[in-house]
Specification:
Layout (H helix, E strand, L loop, with lengths): L1 H50 E3 L6 H12 L2 H8 L3 H17 L9 E4 L5 H8 L5 E5 L7 E3 L12 E6 L8 H11 E11 L11 E3 L3 H6 L3 E11 L2 E9 L10
Parallel strand pairs: 2-3, 2-5, 3-4, 5-6
Antiparallel strand pairs: 1-7, 6-9, 8-9
Pfam family, one: Methyltransf_11
Keywords: Membrane, Methyltransferase, Transferase, Transmembrane, Transmembrane helix
GO molecular function: S-adenosylmethionine-dependent methyltransferase activity
Length: about 250
């Protein structure tokens, strides 16, 4: 009996020590896990901050719009876009869209939107490769291919389009709203194709500078990056393709 009592007395401190060690180990693991998550978040956030820069000088949204309209309404540029550049740009856009059709990102039955379409060369190119249900959006309309609208607040219902294309991401003052509206108006499983400049800076009407694809991956939080490749598209060097997730819940920008 005494031996049993003595053994019990000896075991109690050992059990207490074991519990103490296991508890300490548990809290150490939790602490290290939290520190790791904080590190990863800060690292990713710093990448986003470093790899996209909004250019200074826009004290109001109206000032930003006026600056963009200065280019879009320029009579000399509009004449060039509808004469000298018209067929050349349609041919280049048609080549891009034909490749996307071969890769099954686009089909003749797709309902398509071109964002920042100006005079609508990309819309015309889509129609020439067989995607007839296509429309463009720009601050200044150019019927019948381009209607008036702000890409920060698209005038379309949720889940309207199968395919959206844009080569004006660098003109977005609020990249999160630009992308948010694309994801809102794309159907689940829909495709967004962006042409962006990574290796060179864009013109004086550009509002942001993008230095890698990483910020786009963060912004397209309801979509999967399908592919990214080099292209030669009127000064833009990279094509990025996203597919909207089928379970995404979206909210309209306010």
């Amino acid at each position: 009996m005494n031996d049993t009592t003595n053994q019990s007395k000896l075991l109690k401190p050992k059990l207490f020590l074991l519990v103490l060690v296991l508890t300490s180990l548990f809290f150490c693991i939790v602490f290290l896990s939290l520190q790791y998550r904080i590190f990863i978040y800060n690292y990713n956030y710093s990448i986003t901050l470093n790899d996209i820069k909004i250019r200074p000088g826009y004290t109001s949204y109206d000032k930003y719009i006026r600056h963009q309209l200065h280019k879009t309404t320029n009579p000399k540029l509009r004449n060039i876009w509808t004469t000298r550049d018209w067929d050349r740009k349609i041919r280049v856009f048609a080549r891009f869209f034909t490749q996307l059709k071969h890769e099954k990102f686009l089909s003749n039955s797709s309902k398509a939107l071109c964002i920042g379409a100006r005079m609508g060369q990309e819309v015309e190119a889509l129609k020439r490769v067989g995607v007839n249900d296509s429309i463009g959006l720009d601050l200044v309309p150019y019927p019948p291919n381009v209607i008036k609208g702000d890409f920060h607040h698209q005038p379309f219902n949720d889940s309207t389009f199968d395919f959206e294309f844009s080569n004006v991401f660098d003109h977005a003052l609020y990249p999160d709203k630009f992308v948010g509206e694309i994801q809102r108006t794309l159907k689940p499983g829909g495709i967004c194709v962006l042409h962006v400049a990574l290796s060179r800076r864009s013109d004086k009407y550009s509002v942001n500078d993008l230095y890698s694809v990483e910020p786009l991956k963060k912004l397209f939080n309801g979509s999967d990056l399908v592919q990214s490749r080099k292209v030669d598209g009127f000064g833009l060097d990279t094509e990025v393709v996203f597919r909207k997730k089928k379970t995404m819940i979206h909210m309209r920008n306010t």
